[in-house]
Specification:
Structural class of chain B: mainly beta
Radius of gyration of chain B: 13 Å
Number of strands of chain B: 11
Number of helices of chain B: 0
Distance between the termini of chain A: 41 Å
Order of helices and strands of chain B: EEEEEEEEEEE
Oligomer: heterodimer
Structural class of chain A: mainly beta
Helix content of chain A: under 10%
Number of strands of chain A: 11
Helix content of chain B: under 10%
Radius of gyration of chain A: 13 Å
């Protein structure tokens, strides 16, 4: 059965303190792995799509990496406005995408 | 680009009434749209997949007669919650896929439904 597990469930960092969020997955035939950011009461905002192991993508303070078993979302020198829930989702061949439960990230000024 | 809108952003209704939620892709054509439901502090749960011009595909456990989905054009899908009950209160989010060659889904801002 396809599964997506995100850790930690919640993470509190000081402004400027870099860290990484983990997304572990088991899926038969990965078609794509997606990262989204979700603010309270809003829909998810697309960040990245990764397709194959070894692929990396960056956007401002965020960098996503992918291996055959997991993906990391690295956040460098975060700011309070980076506080949000970060969702990981995977899609197997010819199937729906499956979301992880998310990591609630809080950045203290 | 890839902007998805939803209307209304929130709605309060009485038990037993029906509520329609619209999902529009503003700057692209979406052959496939998706409807999700999200409870507080939980992740998104797929309710149904909507393909333009054909019947929606519902996930297991989702009542198709209660959650009516219509995808009449390449830019509009609607979700109607029929005979709403308090347990239907939730955050409903739609998403749309750009064309047929991309798997990335772009999400709307969501609709908060409260059934009294």
């Amino acid at each position: 059965e396809d599964q997506v597990t995100q850790s930690p469930e919640a993470l509190r960092l000081q402004e400027g303190e870099s860290s990484s969020l983990n997304c572990s997955y088991t899926v038969s035939g990965l078609r794509g792995l997606f990262w989204y950011r979700q603010d309270p009461g809003k829909g998810p905002e697309f960040l990245f799509t990764l397709y194959s192991a070894g692929e990396e993508k960056e956007k401002e303070r965020l960098k996503a990496t992918l291996t055959k078993k997991e993906s990391f979302l690295h956040i460098t020198a975060p700011k309070p406005e980076d506080s949000a829930t970060y969702l990981c989702a995977v899609q197997a061949e010819a199937s729906k995408i499956i979301f992880g439960s998310g990591t609630r990230l809080s950045i203290r000024p | 680009g890839a902007v998805v809108s939803q209307h209304p952003s929130w709605v309060i209704c009485k038990s037993g009434t029906s509520v329609k939620i619209e999902c529009r892709s503003l700057d692209f054509q979406a052959t496939t749209m998706f409807w999700y439901r999200q409870f507080p502090k939980q992740s998104l749960m797929l309710m149904a997949t909507s393909n333009e011009g054909s019947k929606a595909t519902y996930e297991q456990g989702v009542e198709k007669d209660k959650f009516l989905i219509n995808h009449a054009s390449l830019t509009l899908s609607t979700l109607t919650v029929t005979s709403a009950h308090p347990e239907d209160s939730s955050f409903y989010i739609c998403s749309a896929r750009v064309g047929s060659g991309s798997d990335t889904q772009y999400f709307g801002p969501g609709t908060r439904l409260t059934v009294l």
